[in-house]
Structures are given as structure tokens and as C-alpha cells.
UniProtKB/TrEMBL annotation, chain A:
Keywords: ATP-binding, Nucleotide-binding, Transport. Pfam families: ABC_tran, oligo_HPY. PROSITE patterns: ABC_TRANSPORTER_1 (PS00211), ABC_TRANSPORTER_2 (PS50893). GO terms for cellular component: plasma membrane. This is ABC transporter ATP-binding protein.
UniProtKB/TrEMBL annotation, chain B:
Residues 107-306 form the ABC transmembrane type-1 domain. It comes from the Bacteria. Belongs to the binding-protein-dependent transport system permease family. The lineage of its organism: Bacteria, Pseudomonadati, Pseudomonadota, Alphaproteobacteria, Acetobacterales. This is ABC transporter oligopeptide permease OppB. SUPFAM superfamilies: MetI-like.
Amino acid sequence: MNAFSAAPQSGLNVKNLSVKFGLGDVAHTAVHSLSFSLKLGEVVALVGESGSGKTVTARALLGLLGSNAQISAEHLSLNGQSLLANTEQQWRKLRGAEIGFILQDALVALDPLRSIGAEISEALTAHKWGTKNAREERVLQLLTQAGIPSAKDRVHLRADQLSGGLRQRALIANALAMNPPFLIADEPTTALDPSVQVQILELLKQLRSAGHGILIISHDLGFVSRLADRVIVMHHGHMVEEGRTEDILSAPQHSYTRKLLDAEPGRRPPRPATPVSPTTLPLLEAHNLSFSVKQQDGTRKQIVQDISLSLFPGRTLAVIGESGSGKTSTARMIMGFQKPETGFIDFLGKPWSRSEKTDIPEFSRRSRRPRLAAIYQDPLSSFDPRWTVQAILDDALSVIHVPKTERLTRIRALLDLVRLPATLLGKNPLHLSGGQRQRVAIARALAIEPAVILCDEPVSALDVSVQAQILDLLEDLQKRLNLSYLFISHDLNVVRNIADDLIVMQAGRIIERGSAHNILTHPRHPFTQQLVAAAHLIGDATGDRVS
Amino acid sequence: MILLPHTQSILLKKLMIRVGGACLVLFAATTLTFVTLHLAPGDPVTAILGGSANPTPETIQEIRAEYGLDQPLMVQYALHLWHVLSGHLGSSFSQHMPVKDVLWQQAPPTLKLMLSSLALAWGFAVLSVTLSARKPVFDSVFSSLETFFAGLPQFWIGIILLWLFAYQLGLLPPAGTHGFSSLILPSLSLAIPLGGFLAQVMRETFKTTLDQPFVLTARARGLSDNAVRFRHVLRHALLPGVSLSTWAIGALVGNAVAVEFIFSRQGLGRQLFLAVSMHDMPLVTGIILFISVIYVLASFLADTLYVIIDPRIQEARA
């Protein structure tokens, strides 16, 4: 049943849409003659990696590209009305009322200084909808509709006071305020924990059943295939493939689509289980670590409780947990940046960190610091923005006192190790791609000749195909240099072919530990089972569609 | 709202810290005034005698004893602190009237001048930034104008305004303290550079806020560009402006010295200058203390405004 009246030419029709930025020599075409249509009650997915033009397309459909974009199309219409010659006034009438827009992360996609109620209400006032009382009622109704329990108590909260799932629901409620027939969702679940992703996916399915036509934009082919009726694959602004979801998944025609599918982390084989020999000593050992912070009401909140772990030479220990599970605090303690409240850490057979009363001074750690390196989710913010790649690596080599005359040779060897061309030496990381930046970060970590590398969500910000390359590189380096990784991630799929051992954290505690192979195939704790199920649901693109 | 006993004790603790801090500021102001005036060359006795010709050494000695100027420096300092603590600001040497009366007379014109300058500066900064940021041509034009304004010295603006509006055009009075029309030119002299500074710090934040995804969400609701700027983005850009304004309260008094002279206005700036040049310790102390109190109050106000503008700050502080 469809709640929206369907005109004969109803739907969003796009034919040969091109979008160009800039003029003359500096002109750059972001979208090349893209054609598709979206009908009510249908979900169309626009899939592509960063720079594919998918986000530009979404904004073009709302007239939000700004004045330096030149849009041309044979046809761009909504319910038979051409949008090409729309004035700003006409666009404003259409935005929110005809087409709703959902962005990636409600934490920044809703005004962080205002309550969700004020934000949603504004979507109504923008179209002069109803009286003040009617709007208040409508906001509550929308929040409930989007699946927020006891909406009355939450309407006055800001996005940062809600959990990731609830605030994403609030963002969807905001887009639904004027009950627009069409919705554009730009990466609506990318920033969310896997279990929350599944919930949002269900909500979007309900909206399709209610008759909304949804254009979903994502880098993740596996994820959208769970929802979309049709898929459009974009690459460098060109549409490379279009068709029914089943067909694209079972028989991808274009090589790029196949590459995307193969790169899905869930498709990668798990690492075979290998036991540690009982005589091997761990490189890094943590015992009963605890850490808490003082809360607003004066009580202490336990962030990490009773965490013990051992990392053995040449192995990868993955720590899995959703946001707020305490994995980052654990990482900070292991790096020696944060004193644990209880427990202790030994590194290379000597004391590394002790609880607050009997702390180890930093100077006794200093000689072992180069043996422990780290790479982070966003390498760009961990580089000095004014330094070139060469300066970054040179600085790292100075830490272990490599003579100046040898450094350039070493830098070239490092770039070679992470498979970057030496031509990047003079480049600024700002001008590198996400994958190249992460490779520079890995080269910097390797420069100090570490035994252990702490990898904190190293691929979470990268496109799927780049993720696969970085994971392959890490695996290869581990074999060649006998490195040990402490690999922190929220995504089970990412660690499945790199982890030997696995720790699952929830609310600051370890709820399951063991060999990665065992846990991935036979999870015991209900939460782990849920995680494995969610990972399977999102990652395994070839499985049956959930309907 | 019902406060839990625990929350109450936190609030009490915070209040104690603030009041303690304010006392420290006032103590430092008193001490610095004392030290600075004693380092400066000159003799307060001349001020006390009010320029009566050739006092005999006996007269000078008498006056020194009467005002405690013959005591060792540390004793003078202790007495000075004691007087301030007990609330006795004393009598001005040069004006021959209680310091309290001088403040009572001179503070209102200066406060009016400060408030109207602050209001004008804010008005300019908010409009200039909100209406021009990231708009082609306008952005660079207004941004340059702000830099230009921020670089102008107050006394120079004062002289130019005086020459143009009072002497050439005859639109506004060149001097005086009373009435609204006499307030316009002095306020503008102080407001133009301050407005430039304010706009510069706000423009930076305004631009970064325009890049935030929630701006796109707001536009996608059907809001106009200007509505998004005024209802969403501006609020984010207010915070650096509020910080700068606290500093500006102090700077305005200093700059008021020149402006009050140029426009022959009554006021604390002018009095402060006269009192310093005549070594009139009680009056200098009184004025400095008064300004410090205003400054402390402005900081309180700024902290309250912070929390109103960005409620996340309060939660982070607790």
C-alpha cells in the first residue's frame, strides 16, 4: 500500500546529469552524464568510493551545490516538473517537503547547540506548518515514529546527549517532518556501531514499506544490498553499472564492481588458528587494568575494569568493542599515556606502567618507546600539516638516532616497504589520498623499528577497496618483520583475516576471549553472537536478502 | 529545580573559587597601583598643595606626616592595603573631595561610553560577518575592512570624526558629556577598532561552522541561506566574540583616556590620567579598583553567557 498519491510521471527522473566545478583549465567534472529514476516505494542505491561523485549527485538533486557548480542535464524532474530552472525560492519549497535529506552522523548533522526537538520543529516552521502546539505534538509523534522510546523525556536533549542509534533516529525524524515522499540518505549508517546499523537498516525498510522512495548513498555495496531494489555503481563520476541488486551481486558485469565486491572485508577468509607455543614469553602483558572518570554527579564511572591481555611475538591480538566499550582507554594505558588505577603493564619483560601509587617514571620507559609504535584512524591529524612526507619520516628516524647521512636511504627503503613511490617524498600529506596517508603513517611507525604496533581503527576511515589494500599490507609486513599488532576495531569483519587472538569488550569489561577463529565461528557470549550476526548481515553481500 | 545536596556543595565550591579569584584580582590591582605610583617620578605633596607657591619645608613636613608619607614604604603599603580592605578609599589629594564622590560623578559617563561602544562594535561585527562570510566578493571586501578598522588608532579616528562631523558638517557637538548626541562620536571612535577585532575572530569561527554538516541539514529543511546564518551559524561564532569582549572592557577604559580628552568629556579615563600625573594615590587606587570590579563582573557575565550559548560547556566543567 502506498500512502502517497502516484501521478503518472511520478518519481525522480534524472537523465544525463553532469556536474562541473570551476571554469576553463581548472574545471573538474564530478559527475558525467548520469541517468536513473527513483519511484515511490523503491530503494535505489548509489554506490561508489570517495571521489565517485555520489555525494555531489545527492546535493544536485536538492539544489544545494552552491554557485560554483555548473549543472547540466537533458532531464531532471520530480513528478514531471523540471527542476533545472528552479529558483532558490522553488528549491526551498521542495527541500524538506518533497525530498527529505539524511546525513551520516547526527552528532554533527544536527546543530550541536540545540535540542533535537528544536531542530525537528524548525523543519516544520521552515514550511510554516501548523501552530506552535500542533508542531510540538508533531515532533513527539515523529520521534516515536522513528523509534525513539519515551520521546517526551528526550525531546529536550541535544544530539550529544543521546546514544548513536537514538540520535540517528532523531536525524531521520528530522527528515520526515513534512512527510516528504522522497528521501535521500547519504551514508546513513557509516558512523554507527554494527548492531545499531542493523536497527537503522530496519527503520529504512519500514519507511520503504510506508511508501517512501529512498535514494541511499553508500560506499558499502554489501550494506546497501540488504536494502536496495536497484544499485547504481559509480566510479570517478561515471556510472559503471546499473541493475537489480540480485543481478549485480550474483553477476557483476564491470571489473570495478567485482573489485568492490571482493574488497568487502566480510568476504575475506579468516586467518587459520595457530596456538602459541607454551614456552613463548609475551612481549606485552597487561594485568587487571582499571580506569574510571569522575562524573557530573560526583560518582565515578568505570571506563575500564579488570582488563588483562598478553601479546605474543608475531601475532595479532584484536580488541573488539562498540563505542564506549573502553577500548580506546585501554589503548591509552598500554601506550603509557594514562596511568591505570589498578593493575600493571609489562613490556619487553620489564615494568612499563603501574597503577597510580607506584608509577613508573617516563624516563625509564623512554629507551623502550621506539619498540612500541602506533597508527590511528585519521593519520592526517597526526601529521604536522606543514611537513612533507620526507620531513615526517626524517623526524621519526631522528628519534632512534639514525645519522643524517643515512636518513634519505632509510626513508626511501621505508616508502618501498609500504609500497609508495619515492616521488611522494616532497608531497604534503594534505595532498595525498586516504590510503596513501595511512601508508605514510605505517612507514612512520616502522621507522622506529618497533616490535609492537598498536593499530587503533586503522582502516575505519577508508574506502572498502583501500581498506583491503591496507589490511594486506599490514599482514605482509607482519610476516616479513615479525611484528606484533594490537589491533583495535569496532568492526569484526575488518579483523577476521588479520587476528590470531580476539578480545571482545563491552562496557569496560572483557566478555569473551580466545582464538579469533573460534570466536568468529562459535561465539559464546550473547553480545558476541549479536556482533557476529551483525557482521555477517552487513558483510556477507551474497547472502539472502532480508525482507 | 530541586538541587541535590551534592550538587549544592559543588555549586558552593565553584562560587568560593570564583569569589577567591576575584579577591586575588583586586589585591593584585591594588598592589600594582601602589608599586607603579611609587616608581614614577614626582611628589604627591605638590598635588596636595594644589600648586600654592613655594611651600616652606615645615609645611611639606606637616603634610607628609598628615598623609603618612613620612613612614617607611612597607608601612605605607600596609596602611594602603588596610584602607582599601576596610573600604576607606579616602580623599583625593588633587580634587580635595572624597574618592567615592569623584567615582560617583565620573563613572556614569564612562560606563555609558563603554556600553554604547560595545553595542556598536557588536552590531557591526555581527552584521558584517553574518552577511558577508563566504559570499563571493563581499567576504574579501568586508574582511579587509575589518582588518583596516582593527588597525586604526582610537585617537586618530576621534580627531577625524571630530573634524568631519562636528567642524565641517556641524551635525554633532564637538564636546560635552550630556545628551545622546554627544555620545555618538566618542562611541564610534572606540567602537570602530573594537568592531574590527570582534569581526575578525568571529569570521574565522563562522566560516568553519559553515562547513559543518548541520548547516547542510538545515538548508535541506528548506531554510534560506540567511536564516541558517542567523539561526544556526551565528550562535557558534558568538563564543570567541564573548571572550574578546571581556578583554575589551579593560582595553576600553584605557582607550577612553584619549577619547575623553579629545571630546572634552567627563569620565574615569580622563580622571585617571590626571590623577596619575599628580600622584594622587587615593584617587588612582579608587579608579583602578572600580575598573577591576567592572572587569571581574564582566568575566562572571561572560562565563554565564558561555553556558547559555553552548550548554555543552557546563556539562564539560562539572
